[in-house]
Amino acid sequence: MKNASELTDFYYKTLYPTLQELEEDRKHLRHRIVVVGIIYSLVVVLIAFSLSSFIAQSPDFLFFIGFGYFALGAIIYKFLIKDYTTEFKQSVIKPLIHAIDDKLSYNSNHHVTEHIFTRSDLFSEPDRMNGNDYVRGNIDGTKIEFSDIHAEKRHKNSKGQESWSTIFKGLFIVAEFNKNFHGKTLVLPDTAQSTFGNLIGNWLQSNNFSRDELVKMDDNNFEKEFVVYSSDQIEARYILSHSLMKKLLDFKNKSEHPVYISFIGNHIHMAVYYDKDLFEPSVFRSLLEYKIAMEYVKTLHLAISIVDELKLNQKLWSKQ
User: Keyword Transmembrane helix, does the record have it (predicted)?
Assistant: First the structure.
């Protein structure tokens, strides 16, 4: 597997002619979006102005105009960038993934299934889920799949009005190993202690009735970042060796985002929370910027490298 530096070289050297063509398309698209945005905004302002007397009597109507403005604007924006996004993923993301390992397959429209997401037990069961940029394959004997995912929960108020909240948004990875775990072990971000301090945080963690038993680890740095729950205390400590805790801590620091992990059956599930679609091209930033390239490369490399890191423990697990 190529390292991050080799992938960055591949991005610039092998893909550069494609990037230059896409960069021209991006500039034209940016100009088109600005023009359409100005015209669209003027039309909405004119409509609001023509309804000013009605708005004066019903100020709430202005809220609906504002909501409609942003909602329709988002739809128009998605429509305008659709072809550019598709071209970017096929011309840049797909070759990058194949550069990591040519046995990996990529489908920009699919995602990890809802069954696998729910099986991980990292989050509550979603009422709807979508995603994209699905990668699947086999790396040195380990089956892996991952994709962007957006899972949501439906709510209804006393008036029957429906709303949606995000359960998880980001990169979801699942890897299959030969070892079967007897119990279920979850490694979650330690939000209670970091928010409420050690005393109250520990109490909240110990009394989390939605999870199995709290497992205290003997690595202070790991404990500052993660909280561990398991149905099998002995197995949890066996799985989370000092070596693996250090790797997970390093992974969390590299990703710079909340990380959730579960060990269930013969699968490891990992979710990295992001607040954006990871492999969508930015229309307002150049594809030739080093920082932009590194974001794509870094994300892909992190997803693949964690499996490579975890494989070091496979021999240990198989002895159990």
Answer: yes
DSSP annotation of 15 reads: S
Tokens of 221: 């740095």
Question: Among 189, 193, 220, which Cα is nearest to 206's?
Answer: 193
Structural domain includes residue 268: no
Report if residue 64 sits inside a domain. Answer: yes
Distance of CA 172 to the CA centre of its chain: 6
Q: Residue 38 falls within a domain, yes or no? A: yes
Range of the domain at 7: 1-100
Give average pLDDT by consecutive 10-residue segment, the chain, 320 residues: 72 83 91 94 88 75 83 92 90 83 86 95 93 86 87 88 90 84 90 66 68 85 90 88 83 83 90 82 79 68 68 50
Phi, psi of 310 (to 5 degrees): -70, -25
Residue 84 lies in a domain: yes
37 phi and psi angles, rounded to 5 deg: -65, -40
Q: How many domains does the chain have?
A: 1
Q: Which residue has the tokens 């928010």?
A: 195
